[in-house]
Write a structure and sequence with these properties.
Blueprint (H helix, E strand, L loop, with lengths): L6 E5 L4 H11 L4 E6 L2 H13 L4 E5 L5 H14 L5 E4 L12 H29 L2 E6 L12 H21 L4 E6 L7 H7 L4 H13 L5 H14 L3 E2 L5 H10 L1 H20 L1
Parallel strand pairs: 1-2, 1-4, 2-3, 4-5, 5-6, 6-7
Helix pairs in contact: 1-2, 1-8, 4-5, 9-10
């Protein structure tokens, strides 16, 4: 895929992986619309890109709201050109444990339905032009699981499934899809989980940090952009995740038993 001159929307891009992706794309000549609930952060990210010679505009946008998604698409077309790339990056960890009905509605809206709603709006146009690129930022939790947080684990599994479906259904129409599945990344989301008082949430943070090295957001952005250029579906910034995933698929019962042991060990650590 050629990036220079393209137009991209990146959600959740005021900080973390989203901001790194927006900056990385802009450095390759992509004109970027930065959406985030943090309006000041979105504008600051766009200003930093413009200061470096790139083209970007920021706005407050709820990535799960159809009206806001339409607003980002309209803004991109008005300020730049029709959208070529959509990066569904915004995500939340959600409530620990099983959560309530409202908790599930919230996390599925942000972590899954946001991707579906954006695809509904963009795919028909991309089909008509024979090109377009959709990036779903999922998580290693979408291939493995997330200790302590059912909503996060399930929603990220669903994101991987939806991205797979997009790639299969529309690849012959010229639409590329990448699904990003990192383990631990130094972002505000991880920092928030670290600082919580909830034992299930702390368990999740420990499992993330002890499973592999915690990467920077720039590391994940670099791996993602390289995958886009190569039109590669699965993006694994942590190379060891592939072996973990193969181990899970090779013997599911053994993997579940191992995860139980791992969970017990982490709980024992927290009590000492």
């Amino acid at each position: 895929m050629e990036l220079d001159g393209k137009v991209a929307i990146v959600t959740g891009a005021a900080s973390g992986i989203g901001a790194a992706l927006a900056s990385g794309l802009a450095s390759r000549g992509v004109r970027v619309v930065i959406g985030d609930l943090d309006e000041a952060g979105a504008h600051a990210c766009a200003e930093a890109i413009r200061s470096g010679g790139g083209q970007a505009i920021g706005l407050r946008a709820d990535a799960s709201d159809v009206v806001d998604i339409e607003g980002m698409i309209t803004l991109a077309s008005r300020e730049f050109d029709p959208v070529d790339i959509y990066i569904a990056n915004a995500g939340i960890i959600g409530r620990p444990g099983l959560g309530t009905e409202q908790d599930w509605d919230t996390i599925l809206d942000v972590n899954l339905r946001a991707h579906i709603r954006a695809a509904r709006l963009l795919v028909p146009h991309w089909q008509s032009t024979g090109s377009g690129y959709f990036v779903s930022v999922a998580s290693a939790a979408g291939l493995l699981t997330q200790l302590g947080a059912a909503g996060y684990a399930v929603s990220k599994h669903a994101v991987v499934g939806f991205a797979e479906w997009l790639a299969i259904s529309y690849g012959d129409d010229g639409i590329g899809v990448s699904c990003v599945c990192p383990l631990g990344v130094e972002t505000p989301l991880l920092q928030a989980v670290r600082s919580t008082d909830d034992p299930d949430a702390r368990l999740g943070a420990s499992s993330i940090e002890q499973s592999a090295a915690v990467l920077s957001a720039n590391d994940v952005a670099t791996a993602t952009i390289e995958a886009m250029l190569a039109d590669r579906f699965l993006v694994l910034p942590h190379a060891e995740l592939l072996d973990m995933y193969r181990h899970k698929g090779g013997d599911y019962d053994r993997w579940i038993s191992g995860m139980r042991r791992y969970q017990r060990a982490l709980r024992a650590q927290s009590e000492t």
